[in-house]
Write a structure and sequence with these properties.
alpha+beta; 5-stranded mixed sheet; 6 helices; 42% helix
């Protein structure tokens, strides 16, 4: 089983919205073969809580306006370190760069196929490198 066309459409719109708000390291995985609850995950990060919230708001607004969908669940908004948006067909994770390094969700889903994203989203790869790692090295807790 692979992600549906609708899921790919939503992932691409969310990825573009994240890139437009200067998210870092935007990547998407087709998790439909290993999870029955959703088709795809989108991961993005930002260097501070304020930008995390801005990216989340843009994704939510864009998907509602352009695709007519609202998340059925939104978690983590209060802290702004890791916000999860559950649109049923897709799940979006926007993390502070430190959490992205610490939790390394890519390791969990590395065996799942990566979804091809719009060029602007692909261009975000590597933009956050060093930010989370530097913070991890300073505190020693995240390494």
């Amino acid at each position: 089983m692979t992600a549906t066309d609708r899921s790919i459409e939503l992932i691409n719109a969310a990825a573009q919205a994240a890139a437009d708000k200067l998210a870092h390291d935007v990547v998407a995985y087709d998790v439909s073969d290993v999870l029955s609850i959703t088709d795809a995950f989108l991961l993005a990060s930002a260097p501070n809580d304020r930008q995390v919230k801005s990216i989340v708001d843009e994704i939510e607004e864009r998907l509602q306006k352009e695709k007519g969908v609202k998340p059925v669940r939104r978690e983590g908004e209060r802290d702004g370190r890791w916000v999860l948006l559950d649109f049923v067909d897709i799940v979006v994770h926007v993390q502070h760069s430190e959490e992205r390094v610490f939790y390394a969700l890519e390791r969990l889903w590395k065996d799942c196929p990566e979804i091809d994203l719009p060029e602007e989203a692909k261009a975000t790869r590597g933009k956050g490198e060093g930010e989370g790692e530097a913070a991890a090295g300073e505190g020693g807790e995240l390494s």
